[in-house]
Predict the structure.
Amino acid sequence: MPRAAQEVSVASSKKANILIRKGRVIDPANGRDEVADLLIENGRLVRIGASLDAPGADIVDAEGHWVLPGLVDACVHLSLPGSGRSGDIASETRAAAAGGITHLVAQPDCGPVDSTAVVRLIREQAGQAGFARIMPIAAMTQGLAGDQLAEMATLAKAGCIAVGNAGRKVASALVLKRSLEYASTFDLPVMFRPQDSALSAGGCAHEGVVATRLGLPGIPAVAESVDLSRDLLLVEATGVRAHFQQISSADSLRLLRAAKRRGLPVTADVSIQHLLLDESALEGFNSHCHVIPPLRSAADREALLEAVADGTIDAICSQHTPIGSSSKAAPFPATKPGMAGLDTLLGLVLQLVDDGKLALPRALDAVTAAPARCLGILAGQLETGRPASLCVLDASAEKDYAEHWLSAGNNSPWRRAVLKGNVKLTVCQGKVSWLTD
């Protein structure tokens, strides 16, 4: 990049004036795929066109590179003191910025998010770090304990964009119905993570041939679809906007398709690891692949890919959960489930494109505009007049994550992978948050 671009201050409070020249601008939400210039003035994207001029602006030569909307990650588990996870908001949002991610949806187990003080703390720490915007999800029940409703309306006013219980058990269908009615009153989306607690109790792997061979306690796919079926009935009864997180099985997809055909206000996402891996990744008791929901059969994985392609599943997320090395060093059933994924989300999505599993516009939409649509937020597209959130990507360059891993969580099977795609510049809400040579 030209020297002028390198002089921009990363994570500064100053709004950027930048002219990005001759990049391949890809914006699936607006059907744009063309070589063009982009002009950012005072932090706002003001023009997209050919041969723009802006005296005094920092020049970024993007010829041969892609210019994309900033990625929106719909499921990230962040760390506050006492959360038991590695890293902090500064380290994890830095990893996000390096991966072109500008908006993170923080799950309500970061605290838990059941008080305005926790919401303020999350937002303050993210603002001080300056790498990415964090949008917290409010706890649906107090302390995520599942019995007493949290003050959802107050938490929404404090900055929460949705409510959920982070996959924790809700005491009864009655408590859940009341929670949905409360959320519906304030038009708050509800985040569901379907998994029946009784059917999944004690399990750590998909109930299938690999778990049987390894002697691991299984979690059947029906544990997800049973819970999803009940949740969909309650969504229909209450009219609440619902987003289903980390769908993992073909049976669940049939239920989602039927719900969408009936016009229910439902959307869904899938984690990137469930699109690339299946139960066979557990061979050798690979604890980096211990995730919940578990990696399922190869047939389930193919069904999930088809569901992303046809829009049954709206978005792809990282399900980022940074965990210390010691928590992954125990015997497989005793290890903590979770995978760090902020660093590699974009690279792995591009791998799906290179492998012919997803078309480029759909793949990029699934990590930009689609998750924003699911949550009703203004993000994930290149819209003039608004604060600029975008990234410049060298799509042909290879990135060695053994040398460039930034998350404090090393728990990923791709921790030492080499993937295509290297983010050269990230601009978040009008400020430069990542810049490389």
Observations:
- The first strand starts at residue 18 and ends at 27.
- Residues 3-68+385-435 form a domain with the Urease, subunit C; domain 1 fold (CATH 2.30.40.10).
- The radius of gyration is 21 Å.
